[in-house]
Amino acid sequence: MIAHDIACIPGDGIGTEVTAAARTVLDAAGRRHGIAFRYDELDWSCARHEREGAMMPADGLERLARRDAILLGAVGAPGVADHVSLWGLLIPIRRTFRQYVNLRPIRVFPGVPSPLRDAGPEVDLVVVRENTEGEYSEIGGRFNRGEPGELAVQEAVFTRTGVTRILDYAFALAARRGGHLTSATKSNGIVHTMPFWDELVRERAAAAPGVAWDQEHIDALCAKLVLDPARFDVIVASNLFGDILSDLAAAVAGSIGMAPSGNLDPTGEHPSMFEPVHGSAPDIAGRGIANPVGAVWSAALMLDHLGHPEAAAEVLAAIERVLAAGAPRTPDLGGSAGTAEVAAAIAGALGEA
Description:
By secondary structure, this protein is an alpha/beta fold. The protein has eleven helices and twelve strands. 40% of the residues lie in helices and 20% in strands.
């Protein structure tokens, strides 16, 4: 029996519901494959911030460092500003543990209609988002607050190390998949960072001769992702561009509730964190109707990262079988089932022929 220590941060809103669903499927997969999960459930959330003035305790990062992985639900609540919740929890985790890859796979599953008329199961792509620098930097500030001449400055930071390592990861992933990479850029309008990004793409492409590649300006890329999503295999993008593109691609797939993500330290030196892309959805929180697929798929990514690819593939296949069957499914997919019912169906589908 292999055991893993998992830090579980349900967070806010529907995060508590979908995390419980993911654990149901993880434990079922674990029983089949001889894997035990020991969960350390942590109440780090906006509710904690309102109660104690911080999203997590002062020693929070030290506690996480001892875990094999982190399973996160969602963070955000109306009473706490979004930048407070993000910079109080997720970004410190990503940067302290050098989770420089944000991996966001997107598929149109059989039985789940895309809002795009001609998009079907041939849509199978991955957005590789740089996760620790770029446009989401701390450099900048505000001056003359509340005055007519008030200004705000936010600096984007692109380092050779940071860009090179995300490009190398993306090219290697493309080599294992369909052999094609698209780089998101905006070097016609952003005069320093994006030409630098483009130069490094060309440099790293030379080290991956088996991968065909192209680049697209981000505005045109958004349009092409809607017009012809099946043409894409791996898309590599900066922190901001990757964030936007992956949400757009998730909508193309039928529901953002099905989109997973992994915040990865590919070296394995630090724990990686896995979370669905959707937010805390306070409008439906507590009703038990949130789509658990994004969280369950994120758990499958965690299984793969922890060295259990067969168990991960089985979970993904179980998701596909349940979605293809047409029921049960949650209201965002046109059904009437609850979160726990869908999770139980996925757990029950594990190992089916």
